[in-house]
């Protein structure tokens, strides 16, 4: 059977005459042609779900009405169209299906075949009827789950940071997981093999179910991880429910793996199929042991080990404590050694020089010997009379001395071309080295009459000092008294 039938064309014409554009689009999407719904019809219906002037109840009722047809192709395509709108359409469509009492009543659907004389189509009708019943059950369960939790598991956020089920509280999570499990069970009950995917209608339904399963199992995995993270903080009743959920999760994981294997066999890209890895069996044993401890029972022994699970957990805890203590002691020892080395190398108050070699000579800029002979003698005498720790900051030493012991580099004076300049040579002014002596100073500036250059300076200083004190103690009080006197008069 290829192309639209006469009944499809007549029904579409009748809706066109009546001006029922929405009903015509539903009719076009659910024809008797054995192919999946055409993309242009699905896109038009998706656009209708986002339009505010389109009645969502009318659209849903039209699809439910088409599912009551006796032809399995029409029924199957109406279910596929409904599923497509629930996945990619506006959420108002799913909300209406979840809130209304209308659902797909196809528990006893059976198409006995109305094409006489064609055994191929008769066999196909019988073969597709069970999948139609299972598919309708899944869509009803999907709407029921939305009614229970008020969100679609296929559209919620997933992941560690802001996943809905990953960050859900334990009490709410225990109430949410049953709805998710029911939806996954209804999907896995579709249970088709690669040999059953023989036409475009069932292939389209299988592809939609595959995409739903990937999203549902991701949410299911987030919920189980969240449950296990909070397992050891729950009470006895919650631990019992959580352990039951985890056991059912392991069973469903095997069934999901079988479904994904069928998807791989029919040609779905392997990059779109996740790799499922089972948790180790020791995790289940640890959960059972914790529940037994809460119930006051002795934990059962493992069949693969001679020691009990409690002893195993105790040994693991003891090993962890020993590892922590050894790491702590090692870190403290390394830190103490590094601190001691740092103190010895940087802090002068914690160590004294241990070297027996004499320190390098320090050049005394104010010594009488420029070559440093007398300064070396003075420095050695000082070192012999004092300890190294008595003057840690070298306060008694000459602050203007160079620690290297080398003579300071003094730039040479530029040559003067004028005659009689005092800096033309050392013989004119009596300079015998880098610094001037008393004789050179007298030759350059002259000497006093009595041969004393400091006496006159001292007499002048005493004169100034006496004059200042006479002014302070004699004239200043009189001035203050006269000021107060004139203030009283005026």
From TrEMBL:
Assembly and binders: Binds clathrin and phosphatidylinositol 4,5-bisphosphate.
Keyword Cell cycle included in the entry's annotation: no
Organism: Daphnia pulex (Water flea)
Name by which UniProt lists this protein: ENTH domain-containing protein
Transmembrane segment boundaries: 463-486
GO molecular function: 1-phosphatidylinositol binding; clathrin heavy chain binding; phosphatidylinositol-4,5-bisphosphate binding; SNARE binding
Signal peptide annotation: none
Keywords: Coated pit, Cytoplasmic vesicle, Endocytosis, Golgi apparatus, Membrane, Transmembrane, Transmembrane helix
Subcellular location: Cytoplasmic vesicle, Clathrin-coated vesicle; Golgi apparatus; Membrane, Clathrin-coated pit
One Pfam family it belongs to: ANTH
GO biological process assignments: clathrin coat assembly; clathrin-dependent endocytosis; locomotion; synaptic vesicle endocytosis; vesicle budding from membrane
Family annotation (Gene3D superfamilies): 1.25.40.90, ANTH domain (1.20.58.150)
Membership in a protein family: Belongs to the PICALM/SNAP91 family.
Stretches the record annotates as Disordered: 345-383
Assigned GO CC terms: clathrin-coated pit; clathrin-coated vesicle; extrinsic component of presynaptic endocytic zone membrane; Golgi apparatus; synaptic vesicle
SMART domains noted in UniProt: ENTH (SM00273)
Sequence ranges assigned to domain ENTH in this UniProt record: 14-153
Polar residues biased stretches: 374-383
